[in-house]
Specification:
Keywords: 4Fe-4S, ATP-binding, Iron, Iron-sulfur, Magnesium, Metal-binding, Nucleotide-binding, Transferase, Zinc. One of its GO terms (biological process) is tRNA wobble position uridine thiolation. InterPro entries: Ncs6/Tuc1/Ctu1 (IPR000541), Rhodanese-like_dom (IPR001763), Rossmann-like_a/b/a_fold (IPR014729), TilS/TtcA_N (IPR011063), tRNA_thiolation_TtcA_Ctu1 (IPR035107), TtuA-like_LIM_N (IPR054306). This is PP-loop domain protein. This protein is 50% helix and 12% strand. It has a six-stranded mixed beta sheet with strand order 5-4-3-6-8-7, sandwiched between helices. The radius of gyration is 20 Å and the shape is globular. The protein binds Fe4 H S5 and zinc ion. Zinc ion binds next to helix 12.
Length: 303
């Protein structure tokens, strides 16, 4: 197995590209993929301020590192969601990386700052922990980005994540979600910041390899609530298909983006967007769900 670029000994084989790379050429390949994705989808350029959402896992750490190394104007954002040891450990990893590398980091703690507890809220609202957590995260990504004058919010979604999401949405013909599945979600309101996924063509394995080569510390544990998620089953099924037919995941995503997605454009819900009467963030109701969560949490501590 020789490196396709320099003919030295290859250390990673990427079956879907029918190519092996040595360490140095893998980094060249990885960097090119990220740069190509950013350019092809006009995600941002060097003058833009980009907020990178960091969980402490390999994907977001890889994204933060590559964007900072390539000279993009990035600030990390970490949200402590109050998920026991998982949150404590991930915050440590993220803070220590920022400190060692002199990177800017914004930390939000939903309990300390807003009195929010995802477990209490999930019981009170009879919603899953992940659904409450997801709403809080989406709100804060946008609010922090908007208030800080950022041009884009970047997340570490990889090819495996995107293919699993696409499979889930296709299996239940979630037309609205299919219309929105894209490496770039443009802003549809002056107060909504564009969302981008520069790693959408790179796999989990490639991101892992990238952080290992660069000796980037990351949290190996997944969030305890991710266990048993449907998306994990979809990833297993797709891995099986990929084994038999390398390139399946990439074909699935790129063909959907090139040929499939446009058929769902009309399915985009034409929701009337307005500004929350409490915080001014974009919502479809009088008061946004985040402000309702805060109100509910305060009522419950008063009683
Ligand atoms: S939604 Fe659910 Fe994630 Fe929140 S509770 Fe954990 S698994 S972190 S991507
Ligand atoms: Zn609000």
């Amino acid at each position: 197995m020789k490196c396709v670029r320099c003919r030295k000994k290859g250390v990673i084989h990427l079956k879907r590209h029918n190519a092996a790379f040595c360490q140095e050429c893998f980094l060249y390949y990885y960097k090119n993929q990220v740069k190509k994705n950013i350019k092809r989808h006009r995600m941002f350029d060097k003058e833009d301020k980009v907020l990178v959402v960091i969980s402490g896992g390999k994907d977001s750490m890889a994204l933060w590192h590559i964007l900072a190394s390539e000279g993009y104007n990035v600030t990390g954002m970490y949200i402590n969601l109050g998920i026991g040891q998982y949150s404590d450990k991930s915050q440590q990893v993220v803070e220590s990386f920022a400190q060692k590398n002199g990177l800017e980091l914004i930390v939000k703690d939903i309990k300390k700052e807003y009195g929010l507890d995802i477990y209490k809220l999930s019981k009170l609202l009879k919603r899953s922990t992940c659904s409450v957590c997801g709403s809080i995260k989406r709100y804060l990504f946008n609010k922090v980005a908007y208030d800080g004058g950022f041009s884009a919010v970047a997340t570490g979604h990889n090819l495996d994540d995107e293919a699993a999401t696409l499979l889930g949405n296709v299996l239940s013909w979630e037309e609205g979600y299919l219309a929105r599945q894209s490496p770039v979600l443009e802003s549809t309101h002056p107060k909504l910041v564009k969302k981008v996924k520069p790693l959408y063509t790179l796999t989990e394995r490639e991101n892992l390899f990238y952080v290992l080569i660069n000796k980037i510390e990351f949290l190996h544990d997944e969030c305890p609530h991710a266990v048993g998620a449907r998306s994990i089953l979809y990833k297993e099924v797709l891995n099986r298909l990929e084994e038999e037919s390398p390139g399946t995941k990439q074909r699935f995503i790129t063909s959907f983006l090139e040929k499939g997605r446009r058929h769902f454009q009309d399915a985009q819900e034409k929701l009337e967007l307005r500004e929350c009467s409490i915080c001014g963030q974009v919502t479809t109701t009088e008061v946004c769900s985040f402000c309702r969560f805060v109100k509910l949490s305060n009522q419950n501590t008063e009683n």
